């Protein structure tokens, strides 16, 4: 098996524990003064990449783990987190604060990055929790012409550049097999991301982060989608109480449920 050069795309999003609020203009959610962190699915991708190296899963070994993100300077924090978990280096693609990139634009950028870095395995979250598009991995595979395995809950390596991925589907799980180079997107049951030690956090702070722009990858920001309006979901109605089974049946008949 060839030595792995793993690219791990990561995204800075509103922290999963924060309840998003729609902004006054109703063009999106409020981001000013809101805690941000690494996308949880991308956390799994970093962890899996590091485990592949640590556990010697790939017969050819791991030559390089590169974390890449597109965003403002603040996004450098999540790249340093990735390096504190075990990534060898990081690339930050400068994008203005508040300028959202559509999945196809991100996929085009990653295609160019993969070719420049000579990566042969890309592991990324199946979706980001801000737009929940679940498109970038699939689009990247299409642009590169590589095989893909989405929603991975287990990754195993065989002989001859073969990778087996167990993936979650509606009816349970299925196992697919493909050869490198390939794209893998991660699901929640794949692993439990580690907490970086203080020593590694301090070490990551001193590591350089390579700065690039979309132009370095030959990509421009193109808007194909337009958000017309964003509103809060309607408040849930409170439930009713019944005294006994007969009351429940009567209520269900009244609602047309039975």
UniProtKB/TrEMBL annotation:
<dbReference type="GO" id="GO:0009063">
    <property type="term" value="P:amino acid catabolic process"/>
</dbReference>
<keyword id="KW-0496">Mitochondrion</keyword>
<keyword id="KW-0249">Electron transport</keyword>
<comment type="similarity">
    <text>Belongs to the ETF beta-subunit/FixA family.</text>
</comment>
<dbReference type="GO" id="GO:0009055">
    <property type="term" value="F:electron transfer activity"/>
</dbReference>
<dbReference type="Pfam" id="PF01012">
    <property type="entry name" value="ETF"/>
</dbReference>
<comment type="subunit">
    <text>Heterodimer of an alpha and a beta subunit.</text>
</comment>
<dbReference type="GO" id="GO:0005759">
    <property type="term" value="C:mitochondrial matrix"/>
</dbReference>
<dbReference type="InterPro" id="IPR014730">
    <property type="entry name" value="ETF_a/b_N"/>
</dbReference>
<dbReference type="InterPro" id="IPR014729">
    <property type="entry name" value="Rossmann-like_a/b/a_fold"/>
</dbReference>
<dbReference type="InterPro" id="IPR033948">
    <property type="entry name" value="ETF_beta_N"/>
</dbReference>
<feature type="domain" description="Electron transfer flavoprotein alpha/beta-subunit N-terminal">
    <location>
        <begin position="26"/>
        <end position="221"/>
    </location>
</feature>
<dbReference type="GO" id="GO:0033539">
    <property type="term" value="P:fatty acid beta-oxidation using acyl-CoA dehydrogenase"/>
</dbReference>
<protein>
    <recommendedName>
        <fullName>Probable electron transfer flavoprotein subunit beta</fullName>
    </recommendedName>
</protein>
<dbReference type="InterPro" id="IPR012255">
    <property type="entry name" value="ETF_b"/>
</dbReference>
<comment type="function">
    <text>The electron transfer flavoprotein serves as a specific electron acceptor for several dehydrogenases, including five acyl-CoA dehydrogenases, glutaryl-CoA and sarcosine dehydrogenase. It transfers the electrons to the main mitochondrial respiratory chain via ETF-ubiquinone oxidoreductase (ETF dehydrogenase).</text>
</comment>
<dbReference type="InterPro" id="IPR000049">
    <property type="entry name" value="ET-Flavoprotein_bsu_CS"/>
</dbReference>
<keyword id="KW-0813">Transport</keyword>
């Amino acid at each position: 098996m060839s030595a792995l050069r793993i690219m791990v795309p990561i995204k800075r999003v509103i922290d999963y524990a924060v309840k998003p609020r729609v902004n006054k203009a109703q063009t999106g959610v409020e981001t000013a003064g809101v805690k941000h962190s690494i996308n949880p699915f991308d956390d799994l991708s970093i962890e899996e990449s590091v485990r592949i190296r640590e556990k010697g899963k790939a017969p050819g070994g791991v030559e390089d783990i590169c974390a890449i993100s597109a965003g403002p300077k603040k996004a450098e924090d999540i790249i340093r987190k990735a390096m504190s978990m075990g990534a060898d280096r990081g690339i930050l693609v400068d994008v203005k604060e508040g300028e959202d990139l559509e999945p196809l634009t991100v996929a085009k950028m990653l295609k160019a990055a993969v070719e420049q870095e000579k990566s042969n395995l890309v592991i990324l979250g199946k979706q980001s929790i801000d737009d929940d598009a679940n498109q970038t991995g699939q689009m990247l595979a299409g642009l590169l012409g590589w095989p893909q395995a989405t929603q991975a809950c287990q990754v195993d390596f065989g002989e001859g550049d073969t990778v087996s991925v167990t993936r979650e589907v509606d009816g349970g799980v299925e196992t697919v097999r493909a050869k490198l180079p390939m794209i893998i997107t991660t699901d929640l049951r794949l692993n439990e991301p580690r907490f970086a030690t203080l020593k590694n956090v301090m070490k990551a702070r001193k590591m350089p982060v390579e700065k690039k722009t979309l132009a370095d990858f030959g990509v421009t920001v193109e808007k194909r989608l337009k958000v017309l309006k964003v509103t809060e979901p309607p408040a849930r109605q409170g439930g009713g109480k019944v005294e006994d089974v007969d009351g429940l049946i009567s209520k269900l008949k009244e609602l047309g449920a039975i």
